[in-house]
Design goal:
The chain is of the alpha/beta class. The protein has helices at 3-10, 18-37, 41-56, 83-88, 96-104, 162-208, 218-230, 247-256, 275-283, 300-303, 319-331, 357-362, 368-374, 390-406, 414-422, 428-442, 450-456, 470-473, 480-483, 491-505, 510-517, 521-530, and strands at residues 61-67, 72-79, 90-91, 108-110, 135-142, 145-153, 237-240, 265-269, 284-285, 297-298, 308-312, 333-335, 342-344, 348-353, 377-380, 411-412, 447-448. It binds adenosine-5'-diphosphate and magnesium ion. The site of magnesium ion has 3 residues, from helix 8.
């Protein structure tokens, strides 16, 4: 609309007409409503200006706010300006009329922009013409300090005194200022929360994440909580869980978070050595203690002095050695094999097992006194299939590090991720970590699909049952995977479905389907044969 039309439109409005009062009230109530429902600053401000246009037919308006970081005024919202014009609307703090209003904190009326030298027309929106074109601006205040300027072209037309326009704009400016105050408070609160969240995360990271223990599941949160509780003390911890669930990782994290973290962390695998060697490994020996002992050797307990000893697979320790271990734990003293000198050590003990020690005790394979001595703080690491929520996080973590190590950018397709989340994971996190590493190294495509899993996971004829260890498979149906549908049932099915779908999409033109799947014609031919896929008689040659 051109200025002349506007003049005509407003020519019958006078300050005393009830019509004008009604319009003003309508406009203000609309603005209040908008502000009341507001979520986003920018869009709400733009909608406020839109209301001024819709109800009062004001042609152009802009809301200029002070940007404290850049120390300048810039347009935050506008009506009637193009994006380009809006972008140009940036002023120094004392530049032009806007700057003057901001500096003085007083409204300003330019009855004729053509004869006002201060009027910069920076946006270029007001074409300089012979017509008299007015401009009114009022300041916005927050806590008595100017924060911006609301500007409009003449609001109520030439018949109405400028004072009328200014007083109405002042009311509006007060409303907008209140909205800004509220918005600033929310933004500050949000900033604080983000900061707080960052600090908490950093704390958590610095404590455990040197070892990158990933897990958001309830079970893992409990593990984190226990690590935190147990770490500062010297209490013996017994880590329980299937192989590959992260027992060693947790043992290291406990040591790392403990006051002994400057001391050594010594690991002994109790299943790896025969009885006599294990004893000498733990306690050390003097020169000539047995055939082959050509020199004295300190044992692992000595080496762990001032730090932590991690006795892995403690359930495999021979009974006789168990009693010797019990003495070391209880008295912190022992003699090297073949030696008479009593050695005193200060060592924290963390043991781990993947067998049910209570059952071993019942069967007479594990000393009950040693069991109770070790079981001071038990920490259970649930199998991966019982904390499937953690699988995507772990995959993301392992993909990231494998990609980095191998200088690749491999990602997983949704189907492949779905499959991995529902897989049984008999080898737990270790199996997942190894699989991802293998997939990344061997991937010749950017995206890993179910059929790549099929190739790299080896023989997985049916993920639901065949990969489940026998003793668990025949146990009570308590694990989550029993109650949770695994869909689709196997990698083989997924691969078949994927190929069939691609063929269907491509009208059974093998070359096209192969291209879509990133396969060679030979590869797709092989798979079509393997799955015995036959083109239905009604299939079209052309893709639909
Ligand atoms: N929660 C986890 N977050 C990240 N990596 C894990 C996690 N649990 C296990 N791993 C990794 O899986 C592998 C096996 O873990 P490990 O602690 O040796 O298991 P366990 O001692 O129970 O057999 C290790 O490479 C370990 O870093
Ligand atoms: Mg282990």
């Amino acid at each position: 609309m051109d200025y002349k039309d506007k003049e005509a439109l407003h020519s019958n409005i006078s300050p005393t007409t009830p019509h004008l009062e009604t319009l003003k009230i309508r406009a203000l109530s609309e603005v209040c409503k908008l502000i009341g429902e507001a979520v986003h600053l920018d869009t709400t401000l733009a909608r406020v200006l839109q209301v001024l246009h819709d109800i009062l037919r004001m042609e152009r308006s802009s809301l200029v706010l002070h940007d404290p970081k850049k120390n300048r005024l810039s347009i935050k919202a506008s009506y009637g300006l193009s994006v380009e014009e809006e972008r140009r609307g940036i002023y120094g703090l004392s530049e032009g009329v806007c700057g003057q209003i901001f500096q003085t904190g007083s409204p300003c009326v330019v009855p004729d922009v053509n004869s006002e030298p201060l009027f910069l027309n920076r946006t270029g929106a007001r074409r300089i013409s012979k017509e008299k074109l007015s401009f009114i601006g009022v300041p916005l205040f927050v806590e008595n300090r100017p924060v911006g300027v609301l500007t409009v072209d003449c609001l109520f037309g030439p018949e109405v005194a400028f004072e009328e326009d200014v007083s109405f704009l002042n009311v509006l400016a007060t409303l907008i200022s209140q909205f800004l105050v509220l918005h600033q408070a929310i933004a500050r609160k949000e900033e604080r929360l983000v900061e707080e969240n960052k600090t908490l995360k950093a704390e958590l990271h610095s404590r455990f994440n040197r070892h990158y223990i990933i897990g958001q599941s309830h079970a893992m949160q409990e593990v984190f909580w226990t690590i935190e509780k147990v770490a500062p003390s010297k209490a013996t911890a017994l880590l329980l869980g299937e192989s590959g669930t992260g027992k060693e990782l947790v043992a290291r994290a406990i040591h790392e978070a403990s006051p002994r973290n400057d001391g050594p962390f010594i690991k002994v695998n109790c299943a790896a050595l025969p009885e006599n060697l294990l004893e000498s490994e733990l306690l050390g020996h003097e020169k000539g203690a047995f055939t082959g002992a050509s020199s004295a050797k300190p044992g692992r307990f000595e080496l762990a002095h001032g730090g932590t000893i991690f006795l892995d697979e403690i359930g495999e320790m021979p009974l006789l050695l168990q009693s010797k271990l019990l003495r070391v734990i209880q008295e912190s003293q022992f003699e090297r094999i073949g030696g008479t000198r009593t050695i005193t050590v200060d060592v924290r003990i963390i043991a781990a097992t993947n067998v049910n020690l209570e059952e071993s005790v019942n069967r007479g394979q594990f000393r009950s006194d040693l069991f109770y001595r070790l079981n001071v703080v038990p920490v259970s690491l649930p199998p991966l299939r019982e904390r499937r929520d953690d699988i995507p996080l772990l995959i993301d973590h392992f993909l990231r590090s494998s990609n980095e190590r191998n200088d690749k950018e491999v990602i997983l397709s949704h189907d492949a991720l779905d499959f991995l989340v529902n897989y049984y994971w008999p080898g737990n996190v270790r199996e997942l970590q190894n699989l991802i590493e293998r997939l990344v190294i061997l991937a010749d495509d950017l995206v890993i699909r179910p059929m790549d899993l099929h190739e790299h996971m080896g023989r997985v004829p049916n993920a639901q049952s065949a990969t489940r260890p026998a003793e668990i498979a025949t146990g009570p149906a308590t694990t989550e995977s029993f109650s949770r549908p695994v869909s689709p049932s196997s990698l083989r099915d997924m691969e078949r479905q994927e190929i069939e779908a691609a063929l269907r999409r491509n009208g059974w033109v093998q070359a096209r389907a192969a291209r879509e799947l990133g396969l060679t014609q030979r590869q797709i031919g092989y798979r079509i044969k393997k799955f015995n896929l036959v083109r239905p008689s009604f299939a079209l040659d052309e893709p639909q």
